[in-house]
Write a structure and sequence with these properties.
The complex is a heterodimer of chains A (141) and B (175). With 141 residues, chain A is mainly alpha-helical. Chain A has one domain. Chain A contains four helices and no strands. With 175 residues, chain B is mainly alpha-helical. Chain B has three domains: 79 residues; 29 residues; 56 residues, no CATH class. In chain B, helix 1 runs antiparallel to helix 2, helix 2 packs antiparallel against helix 3 and helix 7 packs across helix 8. Chain B is extended, with a radius of gyration of 22 Å. The chains are: A mainly alpha (141), B mainly alpha (175). Chains A and B meet through helix 2, helix 3 and helix 4 of A and helix 3, helix 6, helix 7 and helix 8 of B.
């Protein structure tokens, strides 16, 4: 892509990324949440890849990192949910942390943790799919 | 508000019809985008901002991927000749559709009218949910507390989709 596209993408990606993180972290206070924020994060990555071209070797490394972080975050969600089986009322997906004051950033027990983990999972999954489509097309050629 | 939604629905129908009949696949993909973005405005008018955010982001990403795929292809639809085998297939499909519609209509007749479900789980969520979950956003409170299983299933579907794409698109085996 041309210099203008690259520079604008560089400047805007920062704000898209910050917005995605805001949506994820404030998921239990304002509209949004893990799924929407994760998709925005993936969009920021995709913008960078589209603007700065494709270098298959470099992308392959990124794809490995994306699939590893995706797997780790969904595993952590499961572990957090299973821990609920042993604490308090002993229910799967039990909200066992103290819920705090409604409307504050650190409140609602385990819900923000689930939000962050699901956000990472969604971002990594969408990025993995996008990278796979690019990398394996290069392999055919 | 109902008038606005009706106009938007009309736009969506026109866009969908154009997407089917367009000669160039690129314009067909962009016409399909009309459906998605009109749906975003419909969600906003119906006061569902959570869904609207998800819809606008996912729509944009899928549109980018579809445009990338179409630009790399021939940008034309495949021509299919209609012979006797095709006619038999089409008529079989029509018969199956009619049978399915008949049984679905019978099944829907036996259901309760809209708004009166046999399961009354959702009514327990509505009564002061903020005090139960501690979450100011009602939707997130339901998604990650009462309906944790649903969210886990949703995340698992994405995980499976990523694994499936990696497995199907890989040509050389991993060493």
């Amino acid at each position: 892509m041309s210099l203008i596209v690259k520079k604008v993408a560089q400047l805007i990606t920062v704000f898209i990324f910050l917005y995605g993180i805001y949506i994820i972290v404030h998921g239990h206070l304002t509209p949004g949440g893990g799924f929407a924020g994760g998709a925005i994060l993936a969009g920021a990555y995709i913008l960078q890849i589209l603007a700065f071209g494709r270098d298959p070797l470099h992308l392959k490394k990124k794809e490995t990192g994306a699939s590893i972080s995706e797997s780790i975050s969904i595993l952590t969600v499961l572990i957090l949910a299973v821990v609920g089986l042993f604490i308090g009322t002993k229910v799967f997906f039990n909200n066992y942390l103290p819920s705090g004051k409604i409307g504050e950033l650190v409140s609602a027990g385990t819900i923000p943790l689930y939000n962050i983990l699901i956000g990472i999972e969604v971002a990594a999954a969408l990025l993995t799919i996008f990278l796979a489509l690019i990398i394996y097309k290069e392999e055919i050629e | 508000m109902e008038l606005t939604i009706s106009i938007l629905l009309g736009f969506m129908i026109i866009g969908a019809i154009f997407a089917i009949h367009a000669k160039d696949l690129l314009s067909s993909v962009i016409a399909a985008g009309i459906v998605g973005y009109s749906l975003v405005i419909c969600f906003l008018l119906l006061k569902a901002p959570d869904l609207a955010i998800v819809q606008i982001v996912v729509e944009t990403i899928t549109l980018i991927i579809m445009v990338a795929v179409v630009i790399d292809s021939t940008r034309e639809e495949l021509k299919v000749k209609i012979d006797t085998q095709q006619i038999i297939n089409i008529s079989l499909a029509l018969i199956f559709m009619l049978v399915l519609v008949f049984f679905f209509a019978r099944a829907i007749e036996s259901l309760n009218p809209l708004g009166q479900h046999t399961l009354r789980m959702a009514s327990a969520y509505v009564g002061d949910p903020a005090a139960k979950t501690g979450s100011a956003n009602l939707v997130t409170g339901i998604l990650f507390d009462f309906r944790g299983y649903d969210t886990l299933g949703e995340a698992t579907i994405l995980f499976t989709a990523a694994i499936g794409v990696l497995t199907i698109l890989r040509i050389k085996g991993k060493k």
